[in-house]
Write a structure and sequence with these properties.
13 strands; alpha/beta; 10 helices; seven-stranded parallel β-sheet; about 325 residues; UDP-galactose 4-epimerase, domain 1; 2 domains; single chain; about 40% helix; Rossmann fold; two-stranded parallel sheet
């Protein structure tokens, strides 16, 4: 990545911010960030002259086409999305506009960029639905939420543009990423909401019986596999899992967060949401290990402690 020109969509979001820090340390030449700030935070972007910020919506191609064509990135990391399953259920058309049209817009611009070395698309483990193994080569048919449908559809478009227009591409299915820079609140992941509630001494609500499992992946590990994918020989839009391969029960997660925050919060169980039919989600990362040489750098407990430290010392929690 030394002296490379890098485009990061959704760069003001949690994954983007952590990834940009990694790229700056790796010697990136210039980093263009495209974000509409609907769920990102520009104030967290590093104060670095190599960063160029463009406020734009990826679903509206004319708002950033000129900047991208002039920039001619060596690498595109497409992280922007209309995020979260519940958000997509409540706003399905917005989800299509961002997650399908937005991805196609980027690919349309990239097919004219002869300097492009890799287009890296961040997909989601939600595309697996309630599958048991969650291996990249298994047949899947996601329909549980618009978010799952649209992230999978975008994967197919990435493969189409790789085949039809020779855009060097790869997709990473991200599994329950957590870490610094992610705010809490509606549509947000369980970990930031648990941490903030624990710090405030409020109950931690679990929808279900707590035995549900997820493959929680520290954001540094996600940034790691995105980098490996960009530098790999994969160019045909192939798909790789970006989890850890280790399951964690939600109730155990809640207990760890209560311990790491020194909280007196209670755990309260609530009825599972009607769209959430996935009890267990676990990545098979054997293909990522073999092809991309991916070995997750940060285990769960270490990642949670790093995340709690950020919320305690940096994040502003409203009373």
């Amino acid at each position: 990545m030394n002296n490379a020109k890098i485009l990061v969509t959704g760069g003001a979001g949690a994954i983007g911010l952590n990834f940009i820090e990694r790229m700056l340390k790796a010697g990136a030449g210039k980093i263009m960030v495209i974000d509409n700030l609907s769920s990102g935070y520009k104030n967290y972007l590093p104060d670095d002259g190599r960063i160029i910020f463009v406020k734009a919506d990826i679903g509206e191609i004319d708002s950033y086409r000129k900047e991208m064509e002039q920039f001619k990135p060596d690498y595109v990391f497409h992280l922007a999305a209309h995020f979260a399953n519940q958000n997509s259920v409540e706003h399905p058309f917005n989800d299509v506009q961002a997650n399908i049209i937005g991805t196609m817009n980027l690919l349309e611009i990239c097919k004219e960029n002869t300097e492009l070395k890799k287009f890296v698309y961040t997909s989601s483990s939600c595309v697996y639905g309630n599958a048991e193994l969650m291996s990249e080569d298994d047949f899947i048919y996601p329909y549980e939420t618009p978010y799952a449908i649209n992230k999978y559809t975008a994967e197919l478009y990435v493969k189409y543009y790789a085949s039809m227009y020779a855009i060097p591409s790869v997709s990473i299915r991200v599994f329950n990423t957590y870490g610094p820079y992610e705010p809490h609140g509606a549509y947000r992941n369980v970990i930031p909401n648990f941490i903030v509630r624990a710090i405030k001494g409020e109950p931690l609500f679990i929808t279900g019986d707590g035995t549900e499992t997820r493959d929680f992946t520290f954001v540094g590990n996600t940034a790691q596999i995105l980098t490996l994918a960009a530098l790999s020989d994969v160019v045909d839009g192939d798909i790789f899992n970006g989890g850890t391969g280790k399951p964690t029960q939600i109730v155990d997660l809640a207990k760890m967060i209560i311990e790491f925050t020194g909280s007196s919060s209670e755990i309260v169980f609530k009825e599972r949401r009607n769209w959430d039919a996935v009890k267990d989600r676990l990545s098979d990362i054997s293909k990522s290990k073999s092809v991309l040489k991916y070995e997750p750098e940060v285990p769960l407990e270490e990642g949670l402690k790093k995340t709690v430290d950020w919320y305690v010392n940096t994040y502003e929690i409203e009373d």
